[in-house]
Amino acid sequence: MILRLPFPDSKLFPNAKNGKSWKVSHAAKVSAREYAYTAAKQAQAGFTDKGGAIPVSIVFCQPDKRRRDLDNMLAAMKSALDGVAEALGVDDKRFRPITIDAGPVDKAGAVLVAVGVEIVQLTGDV
Questions:
Q1: Whole-angstrom distance, CA of residue 75 vs CA of residue 107
Q2: Per-state percent for the chain, helix, strand, coil, to nearest 5
Q3: 52-83: string of b/e by CB count within 10 Å (b at 16+)?
Q4: pLDDT digits (tens, 9 = 90+) for 104-116
Q5: Using N-to-C axis directions, what is the helix angle for 78-88 and 23-43, rounded to 10°?
Q6: Predicted confidence (pLDDT) at residue 126 exceeds the cutoff of 60
Q7: 109 contacts: CB under 8 Å, gap ≥ 6
Q8: Model pTM?
Q9: Shortest CA distance to 62 belongs to which of 51, 70, 52?
């Protein structure tokens, strides 16, 4: 199952929080989780739970050429990954290995999340 999710809201990036209250990012977390939940529910037919570990491959297609750390982008995806796990009825601790990579710049920004399969190489438009 492969999902195309929106690029994470800037409020979800750990470095953007700088000690601010949880209230600043709460709405963005809820929105990301709900969007991912809905997308995963719609694509659920492409996923079969075989038990055990569930490989997840994440490719970030940034909306611009700004330099962002992959680990911060992964952290910004926590709420979305929680939504995917909830939609599939699995515990997100089973998401392993998690591979992350940067794909081509996409003006709208996007995150491709492959659950149960691996995105090996991404070229061209997304």
A1: 22
A2: 40, 20, 40
A3: eebebbbbbbbeeeeebeeeebbebbbbbbbb
A4: 999 999 999 999 8
A5: 40
A6: no
A7: 6, 7, 61, 62, 63
A8: 0.87
A9: 70
